[in-house]
Design brief:
Elements (H helix, E strand, L loop, with lengths): L1 H4 L5 H24 L4 H11 L3 H10 L3 H11 L4 H16 L3 H33 L4 H69 L1
Helix pairs in contact: 2-7, 2-8, 3-4, 3-8, 4-5, 5-6, 5-8, 6-8, 7-8
Length: 206
Amino acid sequence: MYELLKGGWMMLPLAVCSVAAVAVIIERFFFFRRISDTKLAEQVLNMIGSEHRNEALNLARKSSLPLLKIMAVGINNRLSPAKAMEAAGITELSTMRRGLPVLDTIVTLSPLLGLLGTIIGMINSFQIMALSGMGQPHAVTGGVAEALIATATGITVAVISLIPYNYFLSRIERETDTIEHYATRLEIALTSSARRTADEDTSKTA
């Protein structure tokens, strides 16, 4: 810790970046871990196929999973379920992306802060050299060490943030594919259910 403090005052914003990155990474990790279950979605589809539309709607509404929320909107909109699910999907995708702009900013900003710390440390070293010549080598090398610590810290924070950031992007893409898959299956199931109902009404009328 003491060695890191030698990196100069630029270590303060780097510390803030690292804390923010860790907070976002932990929150998003548990979020994506929670929404990965698709068992309820299969149950909803089975209920629609068995003509238990109200039960399927109640089950979907009780869930906090983005996929189930979208399916609930589709079930509740008889006239245009596809459009309704598309609109709900946009909202849920924005929820899944929450916090990722922070990581993206940290990935870009941290190396720049480290570079700024490098420049400040080198300026201090040259100023000491200009004032005292080479009579204080320890003071000169101290400024160089400050520059290197800031650079290393900035790159480390960026690397630690970049890996989870790319992982979360891949999870969002995977969840998007899952949502599209189940939304399409739900639309087909709702269409089939509506046709069966119409055929039954026609046969009763005849």
